[in-house]
């Protein structure tokens, strides 16, 4: 399992995809952070994280589209299926490699918040507002809560991308299909505003990833949301395992 994990991590940097993903992610995050905090003279970060979650519609498929599709296209899939590793280990290795790239880039992007703390320090030192809406500075608990929520949502989206990648050898098809499903998972909550039936609204809310993100956005750890995101990840990883178990014995 660890050998496959290392292979996948290397492949992100042997090919351009890893560098492209990191560059695009950090560029988007820096641009969004600048215009939702510094430009608006605010320490509020909720808009920043909401936009970044929406940006995952494009960013996550960059990580996952090649994981299994490339193996099928290059005809190396049989080598994986006959390797001395379980199907579960193989799928988990690829899933964890993608999540490592995602989590690492998210953590690196936290440097965007440094100017906010710097402004707060300068404002306190000068004992003036320094054209910023709050002297207290950014709320660290809220930032950490949002980061945890984004990591969990990213994990769920990566599991979707891994599953889609296992279904096709065309990376473009895998990317577009993953984008469509992730976009649906983000937008499905908006349907509640036009549906009167409580049962239907409850079912729709269950599939909405943003509805459960709310508490994290306030800096509150939501155990139910944690279970929800982990459950989505587990379901799609399990489905991917079943796809390859069928191919191994099919």
Characterization of the model:
By secondary structure, the chain is mostly helical. The protein has one domain. 73% of the residues lie in helices and 0% in strands. It has twelve helices and no strands. Helix 2 crosses helix 6, helix 8 packs across helix 9 and helix 8 runs parallel beside helix 12. It is globular.
Mean pLDDT metric:
85
Oligomeric category: single chain
Order of helical and strand elements: HHHHHHHHHHHH
What overall geometry do the principal axes of the alpha carbons give? globular
Q: End-to-end span in angstroms?
A: 23 Å
Radius of gyration (CA) equals 20 Å
Structure summary, number of beta strands: 0
Structural class determined from secondary elements: mainly alpha
Query: Helical amount among residues, as a percent range?
Result: over 70%
- Put simply, the count of helices is 12
Low-confidence stretches: 129-134
Query: What percent strand?
Result: under 5%
Largest sheet: none
Tell me the domain tally: 1
